[in-house]
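Thread: "does anyone have the structure for this chain?"

Original post by V.I.:
We have the sequence but no experimental structure in hand. Need at least a predicted one for the grant figures.
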Amino acid sequence: MLSIALVLFLMGLTGLIVIYGIKIDSYLRQNLPFTVFIKNEATQGQIDALKTQLKAAPYTANFTFISKDAAMEEYKKDVGEEFLDLTGDNFLEASIDVQLKPDYTKPQSMANIKAEVLKNPAVSDVTYSDKVTGELNIAAQKTGFALFGFSILLLIVCVSLINASIRLDIYSKRLLIKSMLLVGATQSFIRKPFLMRAFTNGLISWLIATVLVGLVVFAITSSPTNLEFGLVLDIKYLGALGVSLLLLGLLISYLSTVIALQRYLKTRTDQLY
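Reply from O.Q.:
Generated one for you, tokens below.
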């Protein structure tokens, strides 16, 4: 049980890394700068129509309207210089900061959105960082491939360890198995207690691993130095991870027990020593 629990715990930690990567990638994509600038001569009706268009668009997660006055106040804070007194007018344009949904943050998708928004007569320009968008997509692809490869390697190692532990356990009972066969017990009768034990071991191991993973999540998310790791607390992803660990523990325990039992059920008596 301990060996299976430790293996499931390692798989759980890997799952947490994957979940955290997904959530952070989504967070970064939704906060990519995508700004729509509005012409100074645009009427209030045109601005309202633009807001309605953006709100109804399938690519919009949220947006924030920044008026000319608000843009000026932001300029004062950033630059520390008020050019309004020198020019006698506020030449800054009102703008709308749009948060795009993660599925629409690929370079081609953002280019298509820009072209669509520029067709609005109230829009003077649309800006976003092509470089940041491209680098984010490349980083996400590389990280995804790396985590996938590591997960497959870890799964192979884990299955091997669990299989070896169960085979050793059944090996110690090989004489008992053969004795039961000699007195007329059927193979299904012999398998039943071993399979029930495998199911129980897998379930208890899952409970231990789940508690350990839960303690890790609690320790990380409750840390005062943690800034964004609270994003991991997503019931949907954590529930899927818990169910995956349960199925993995039961499946590996069951299959390893069946394979090891079959070997000794078919082994001749003179080969047991």
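V.I.: this helps a lot. The radius of gyration is 30 Å.
O.Q.: and Residues 18 and 147 are 7 Å apart (CA to CA).
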